Amino acid sequence: MMRRLALVLLAAAALTACSRRDEPAPPAAAPAAPKTTLQVLATSDLKDLEPLAAQIEAATGVAVQFRFGGTMESTQEVLSGSTADAAWFANAKYLLSDAAGQGRVKLQEKIMLSPIAVGVSESDAARFGWNKPDAKLTWADITKAAKRGELRYALSNPATSNQGFMALLGVVAAAGGKGEALTAADVDRQAIADFLTGYKIVGDNSTYLAEQFTKQQGTRANAFINYESWLLSLNASGKLREKLHLIYPFEGVATADYPFMLLNDAKRADYLKVVEYLKGDTAQLWLARQTLRRPMKAELAAQVADLLPARGFQVELPFSPDRQLADGLIDAYLNEFRKPIASTFVLDTSGSMQGQRREQLVEAIHYLAGADVSLTGRVAKLTNREKLWFLPFSDRPREPVLFEIPAGTRVAKGVAPQADTDAKKAELQRVRDSADNLRMAGGTALYDSVLAALNHMLEQRKLNPDYQYSVVAFTDGKNTVGRNLDAFKQAYEQLPEDVRGIPVFMVLYGDAAEGDLKQLVSITGGRVFDARKTPLYAVFKDIRSYQ
């Protein structure tokens, strides 16, 4: 049964401004001595809190050192016994939904609040009548608009990020109408399929999604589903073609409560000092004004009511304790409901790749083809209905080799993780065998090969438009053969306009030219992933979150 949030009265005033304010640094208390360090594993959507570290240290004597990662990546690390002293997630309900996660977390304190919201371009919100003061829009309304093609949205990957998963869970919980009693068997499969019809811009990182939405607002997408704080910040940035009208579905939304969690009991005293500071008035007001997340106390919320929409809190959708529901929903999203992936892996097989670099590339491909059974490995694994081409290159691009993962067993009701069929196992083995047979020799025709991959993807999209297309290019060196970057740009400009919907993700490794790769992705709508200090298999898993 849906529960009214006790915090519904926190923001009683109407929104009169959504811009961040210049807030002077809080006055520093005398530092405690001796100074100690607290290593904090944080999800990537909390990067805007880095300036707070200096204020925490000044007030408490505890030096907070942040290390950022994706939600599933960070969850896996905690479950595996992280060396971090504390963890800070937007939401830890998935982590704490089983005994293993509960055993890792010694203490937790909720620090701030931000509900999921649907940000719709103001002109479209007005056209649909969604901006009326008395509008009581529901998740069902959002889902119907997506199915009709009226709502085309950006959303972080529900399989790897908290806000994407909680939005999908909101659709399921509202359609099921059972609240906390919802189980995996109760999931309305049609509601998922209809909602995902409008999913147009995919990514794992809110910063990346904001960049892509800003570029494609009004063309490819007209809505952005994210935490309220991100949407308000985007409105205040001045980068959008038009501002977003925020909708909080009437049945309820999931709210990020940003639990700060103690992992290392030996650091309990330092943890408690930091928590006390974070929950104090000075830090709470700084967080509200600088990050547009809501304070925990009603009296503080009243002081920033001019920054935050009064309708932000309505009903909190409960998180079902059924872990099978969460795991089944993620598995079904990846293997059944999302638009299937079609990608070309442009693989550098030049002479400089011989030896350890080749071994790492082969290992990474093995992991994607099922060798990694960890939580993040299962999420990154090649999925049912997926098409993957290997395009090896050295002095020139070679012919693409196709791998096609078959569909799974048809499910009539609910969601549940499925075991791999024999046909899928055979195709995954074929991927691993192909990686084992890669041979390294020759120069590096990088730009010719990326261009060949884009042309290949364009041709495939004409034949099969119902796929999510991308190019993933890996190189350990600088371009030495064929087109240079300027010639690539000229050739890219001659491609059809719909090439803009095919992002190119570049993996930076070895002696590759970082500046050139960043220029390439800036025009192809992709991103550079740095594998010089991070294991290559981990980078490949990160890329999967953007596909």
Automatic annotation (TrEMBL):
Start and end residues of each VWFA domain: 342-525
Transmembrane stretches, start-end: none
SUPFAM superfamilies found in the cross-reference section: Periplasmic binding protein-like II (SSF53850), vWA-like (SSF53300)
InterPro entries to which the protein is assigned, alphabetical: ModA/WtpA (IPR050682), VWF_A (IPR002035), vWFA_dom_sf (IPR036465)
UniProt keyword Signal, yes or no: yes
Keywords tagged on the record: Signal
Extent of the signal sequence: 1-19
Coiled-coil annotated residue ranges, if any: none
CDD domains recorded: vWFA (cd00198)
A Pfam family it matches: SBP_bac_11
Domain of life: Bacteria
PANTHER family from the UniProt entry: MOLYBDATE-BINDING PERIPLASMIC PROTEIN, SULFATE-BINDING PROTEIN
Name the UniProt record assigns to this protein: Substrate-binding domain-containing protein
Organism: Pelomonas margarita
